[in-house]
Each structure stands twice: as C-alpha cells, then as structure tokens.
Design a protein that fits this description.
Two copies of one chain form a homodimer. Chain A is mainly alpha-helical and about 450 residues long. The first copy, chain A, has 22 helices and five strands.
Chain lengths: ~450, ~450
C-alpha cells in the first residue's frame, strides 16, 4: 500500500463521511514519521479535523513537516489548550525554527504558552544568532555511559529511543555530561552484549559549538558522512545534536542566497511567492540603485568623448555591443570564481593561478568575438555599401581590437574582484554578475575610445 | 583525542620513522570510517606507504573519501594486484563514480581487473544514464524477511551489518526479493525480540527506479527525511539503495550547475581549477558568441536611429545607462523566478500571479530609477550649465520616462522568459542573467528612441 495518493484520498473520504472512529482506526497502525508528510499536504479544513482526532505523536510530527504558512493557519484553528500541548511537544529544533518565522509579538505570545522548562529551552535556542548551529540543534539525543555494557545500552535505547530525533548515532558521556565519544548504533548492534561500552570507543569524533555558523556544520557533514554531529559548550559538555536531514535544507538555503546575490539582488530570505511586495521591492531597489549610480559614470565618460562621437557617429552604433560583451565575459568569470570559492576549490593565495587562467581564457574569448565582429562589419559593408562609411575598415579594426581588450579586461575583473571582496572580509557573492557588468561598462568605454583614437586619428577623428 | 591535526601528524611521524609495526598498531583500534577522512588528506607519498600497511577495510574507506585526482594517483602507486584487490573491494556506488571520472580506455582497463561478478555489477551500474539514481545506488543493504522474528533479524544484522552502507534502515523483502517495506532500525531496537518482523510493517514506503533522475531522489529525501531509499526494478524487485550522504553532494552539484548557467556559461561539470583551459574556453565561448550575435541587433537598431543620433548626440550619452538598467532589472527578476521554480515554490500555471507581482515591482523600481535619473540630469544642468544643451529638461524627461518603461519591460521579460523556456521543455536556468540582459538591451533601445521621438519631436528631433 505504498501509493500515497490512495492514502490521502482515503483519509479525506473518512473525514468527509465524518466517521471519526473509522478514521482513528485507520490511522492507528501507521508510524507517525511515515504518515506525517502525507497529512501535511491535506487542505486546511481536513487538517483541522484530523488534528483533533489524531494521537499527539502524529500531530506533532505532521506539524514539523508543514510549511510555515500552514503551521500558522493550523495553530489558529486549535483551541488555546491544544495549541499549548502541541507547542510543548514539538522537538526543540523545529519549535525554534517555527518561532523564528513569527513576528516578535506572536512569538512572545507563543512562548508564554510553554511550560517553564520548555520555555527555558526555547529561549536558550532562540538566543543563538540566526544561521548558527545553536538554532538548529535538538536536545533529543541518546547518551550512554562508558561503564555500561552493550546490553545495558541497548536496553536503554529500547526504552528511550522512540521519541529521540535519531538513534543512528549514540553519544557517550561521562558522569558530568562531558562528551567522550560518538558511536554509530551499528557498532552496538554487531558487538557482543556483555562487552562494556568503553571498549567500543575509538576516541575519534568531531564536535560543533552552538555559536558555529551552520555552513561549518554543512562542511563537516559533507566531509565525514555522518548522520548526526554533537554540539558541546565551552567545557565540552554535550548540549545537543545536529542531524543530517536539516543539512539538505541548509544547503538549499545557502545556495538560494548565493544565487540571488549573484543575480544582483539582496537575498530575499523568504520564498519569492510569499514575500510582501514592499519588502521585495526594497531588497531589489537597493542594488538596482547602486548599479544605476555606478552606471551613471558611463554618461560622464561619454560626455568626455562627445566631440569624438560627433565626428564619428558610427562609433555610437557599436557602443552597446562592445561594452556588453565585456560585461558578459566578466559575469561568466565572476560566477565561476565565486562558486569555486564557495566550494573551497581554491584559496585566496592561489589568485595568481586563477589570474593566469583568465588571462588565457579572456584573450582567447576576446579574439573569437573580435573576429566575428570584424567579419560582421566587413560583410555588411560589402553587401550594403556605405552602411559604415568609407572608412569601414577602420571601424571594423576599432571594434574588433576593442573587443579583445574589453573581453580580456572583463574576464580579469570578473575573476579578481570576488577574491578582493573576500580578502576584505565580505561575501564574494556580492560581486554579482550585474555589478561586474556595470564596472566593465564604464572601463570598457574608455578602452573603446582609446582604441578608436589610436586607429582613427588623422582619418575619422 | 578528538584533535584530527594531532592524529595526522602522529601518522606522518610514524611513517617518517619508517616504524611500520608501530604504525600498524596505532591504526588498529580505529574505526575505518573515522580514520579515512583524516588519511585522505595526507600527501601522496605518505599515502602510498600507508596503503601498503593498512588493513584493507581502511584502505577501501579512505579511497572513497579522496578526490578523483588523488584516487587516480594512488591507483598508479599500487601494484597491479593491490589495485585489483582495492577495486574489487570498493562499494559499488563509489566504484561507479570513480570509473565514471576516467577516460574510456582507462575505465575499460580497470573494469578488466575486476572479478567476473564485480565486473557485472560495475557494468550494470555504468549502464544507467549519467545523473540517474542507478549510477548512485549501492548494493550493500540489509534485507530481512517478514516471517523472521525481531531476534532473527537483529542476529542477521549483527552478522552481516558491518560492511553494509547503512543499517539505519532495514529492508523487508519476500522470497522473490520483492520489496515489502522499509523499516527504520530503531523499530527493531525498541520491539520485543520474539515479535515477528511482519508485525513491524506499516506498508508505507517510497521507492525509486534506477532510471529516475537524481533530482527526484533529492526531492524525496527532502520531503520524507529518510536516511536511505530503496531502488526497485519494474517488477518491484529490490535492486539497491540510495543513501542520504550522497544527497549533499547531489544538492551541491545541482546548485553549481544552476549557478553557472545563470552566470551565462555552460555548466562546467568539472572543478574550475582542474578543467582544461581548452574545455573551459569552449564552454564559455558558445554562450558568449550567442550573446554577441544577439547583441549585434543593437548595432542594427542604432543604425536605424542614426539620423536621430546625429540630431541629438546627447541621446547617445545616456544609451548605456538606460539600456543596462533594464538588463539589471531583468537579471534580478530572472534569478528570483528561476530559483523559485527550482525550489518548486510555484508552478507554470501560476504565471499570472508572478506577472502581477512583476508588473508592480518593475513599475516601482522604474519610477525610483527614473526619479534619480531626472535629478541627476537637472542638477548637472544647474551646476554645469550647457552640459546637456538648452533642452536639458526634455533630455531629463526622455531618460526618466524611458527608464520606467525599460525597467518594467526588463522585469516582465526576466520573469516570464524562464516560464516560457520551461514550458517549452528546456531548463529555465538557460535564460541566464546575461541572456535576459542582451534581449532587454535590444528592445530597450527601441523603447528609448520611441520615447525620445515622442518627447523631442519638433524641438530636438
């Protein structure tokens, strides 16, 4: 019966028939973790009914699978008591994430519904900075002591394992709660039952601090292929764990941030479809205005070359073509370098290797475009004589020479600027494709007119 | 002793002292999975020594943690027999990935080193398309039968679990090998030992087909928070599993592809630092040439407006400013929409909602830039009289009106084109920021001159 659509429609049918007894019976044999993702997809009306009849385990699990919008709606449908019970039963990391999505006043109101113990937990998790490991950690782990036997440990897991976030990794702590080791549960399963836990230790483990950035956690998970990592305080006391399933979301959010910055906008930090229009416009306007102010320098530069433009109006025809090719080359280089930096493929001190590559690539790409540009102008001048005047050969030479210089320049700027920005301590993704394009536009104009002046002096200029 | 730097330097010291007996003894108590990532970081010379003394488990595990370049070097350092033993012992999914990185002739040579059984496995995995689930799956899973008791199942896991990729999920199959269910190992741990496995079944599981794209696997892992998913053939026979640790790499690779495409280049499919220059130039040139050919239309359009340019040379001063602002707005919109599509935040049929948002956002952003542009030209004309001629107010009106139109147009193009491209069955990330910018450049010129003609007719034009 693996067909989830069937399960879903069966549940909806039972709700429509208002047969709550049958519904309860239908839900009973399921593991909450398997049913929750299916229920989370239901329309809000059906959900409200379900949440009143479901066992609490299932309600809690389902709630964690829902998007923030749905969670908010569900909470409103419940009575005060039901909502309080639900909030208190939520795993601490999911509750932190949920509270974090709410406006401050709503979050405070929800906090007040918690029991004193749970409130303390929630407040301590919320006290960690956003995007920190502390915000993502859960307190539901299984810890055993080194002097126990494997049998004792397995018995303990059997008793306490069910409501823990993961039992794939078992943590070993001493009497003071200090982390001694983390052991995969498989090690317990394949060991003789009377062996002491101490003999299973290998002394090798990786730890996180609650203040670490979540990107560090992501890196460690990728490097060590673990399903859970321990979080310890300054005294190496075990205070929580982070699990790999949260990492897929972290990886996705980090990629989204980088992609949005590369596209020339502030990271939205909310889904495109649900962010308020005013907030989205604000996030986009800031960069757009910065780029506009930068691009204004092109008007200043062109003003400086106005007499050349008047003498050779043909130069203005190729202005957008030449200048934007530099921007495109720059945005390619910037994108590749920024992504390689994010993946740790090279370090800042390797800048010379990158520059050497971009010198060759930029020059080659410039020559390719230069040749195409030269052919374009020559062919047009043969087919439609007079299009670009008598001196078309000079025009073609100017455009193609300028293209080589500008594409090379764009590639160098695009590849080096992210490194400089990173060196200065900022996020290299800030040097977005549009940002590079704007810089190259301004400098490209100067290259274009300098080349024109050298080639056309005495004839057209 | 969790400090990995210490472990590493201790190992290096032992190798330098050529004390292989002590080295062997030092390595013995470690779990291969914990030591492997540390060893994988060692310089190649030390690695070659280590690989000769280490137990095979450790060698194999270490090999899977190394980057493809390092793997190739290590394989060359080993004798033919050693290399064959290593290859035969590799987990099938890691071996597939490794073979896939090699040129065809090397891959064939390596395949010939495998035992007939392993060769058949390797060839069948390699037969699946690139980026398919079949290429990523491993055959090392634990399967039990429904008629067994929990005790029998745990005994079986104790005996066979050690060299399996994961025992966090146990698969239940019938006598013909058909998948019946997947059960988390925790369910076995917390159940009475004499309960039959059949009573643990909940009938709820998700399956993959080996031909599925790896993005589908990623989606299911995100949705269901599993650590492993079963892969079945057309007859629902269990043929392998995919584990969550591979998903972090998939998520990263998919994001890299999207980012590179958005930056206006073909996806490199190799690290920036190691791809050959010729291949990188080829991947960048194709898009750069396409964009260049598109951008040529600006020269054609400008030729058409040449007489207007001659009459009002001042128009050419603001050409790059006006046109690039449209490109920037378009690249913002495209980036946001493409990422939202990739994350499944909305569907194609929601295009009207997106368009409505972009109509408002584009207009607002256009007005913001238009006002700034108007102020810039007015202030300059007061401070430096004559900069933009007597009709500067007309110039300011033209530039700011054109900005509103072009930014609005850019936002609409940027948001709608990815949807159109997706509708046509292509990857929406293809409509990169530079691609949108080029399109908006050409159409932006027409908007600019049309506005100029309307405002300046009878005075300057």
């Amino acid at each position: 019966m693996p067909d989830q659509a069937n399960v879903k429609s069966e549940i909806i049918a039972l709700i429509d028939r208002k047969d709550l007894a049958a519904l309860k019976k239908y839900l009973e044999p399921w593991a909450p973790s398997d049913l929750a993702p299916i229920i989370a997809d239901l329309p809000i009306g059906e959900l409200a009914v379900l949440f009143r009849v479901c066992p609490r385990d299932l309600v809690v699990m389902t709630f964690t699978y829902m998007p923030p919008e749905g969670q908010k709606k569900v909470l409103k449908l419940l009575t005060q008591d039901q909502a309080a019970a639900l909030l208190n039963a939520l795993p601490p990391d999911d509750r932190t994430a949920f509270l974090n999505e709410q406006p401050l006043d709503v979050a405070m109101q929800l906090l007040s519904m918690l029991t004193p113990d749970e409130r303390q937990v929630a407040q301590s998790l919320l006290a960690y900075p956003e995007h920190s490991v502390g915000r993502m950690m859960t307190l539901d782990y299984v810890a055993v002591h080194p002097e126990w036997s494997v049998r004792q440990a397995l018995d303990y897991i059997r008793e306490h394992g069910y409501d823990r976030e993961t039992i794939n990794v078992i943590f070993v702590v001493d009497d003071l709660g200090h982390l001694v080791d983390d052991i995969r549960v498989r090690r317990f399963l394949i060991s003789p039952l009377d062996r002491p836990v101490r003999e299973l230790l290998d002394g090798n483990y990786t730890m996180l601090s609650p203040a670490d950035d979540r990107e560090k956690a992501l890196e460690l998970f990728k490097k060590f292929d673990r399903v859970a990592l321990p979080v310890v305080d300054d005294n190496r006391k075990l205070i929580g764990i982070v699990t790999v399933d949260d990492m897929l979301d972290v990886a996705e959010e980090e990629a989204t941030e980088d992609i949005q910055k590369l596209g020339g906008t502030e990271a939205l930090d909310e889904p495109y479809t649900t962010i308020s229009l005013a907030r989205m416009i604000k996030k986009r306007a800031s960069w757009l205005v910065i780029l506009f102010l930068g691009e204004m320098l092109t008007a200043t530069a062109l003003k400086y070359y106005e007499s050349e433009l008047e003498k050779a109006i043909v130069l203005s025809l190729f202005l957008p073509l030449v200048v934007s090719s530099g921007g495109n080359a720059g945005s390619q280089a910037a994108t590749l370098v920024i992504r390689a930096l994010a993946l740790g493929e090279f370090r800042l001190r390797d800048w010379w290797r990158v520059m050497r590559r971009e010198l060759v690539a930029g020059f080659s790409l410039g020559v390719i475009l230069g040749v195409i540009g030269f052919l374009r102008i020559s062919i047009w001048s043969f087919v439609f004589p007079g299009t670009y005047g008598d001196h078309w050969i000079l025009v073609a030479a100017t455009v193609s020479t300028a293209l080589v210089g500008i594409v090379l320049w764009g590639s160098l700027m695009g590849s080096m600027l992210p490194l400089i920005i990173k060196r200065a301590g900022f996020d290299p993704a800030t040097s977005s494709a549009p940002f590079i394009a704007t810089l190259v536009d301004v400098t490209g104009l100067i290259i274009y007119f300098t080349v024109a002046f050298m080639i056309m002096r005495g004839t057209m200029l």
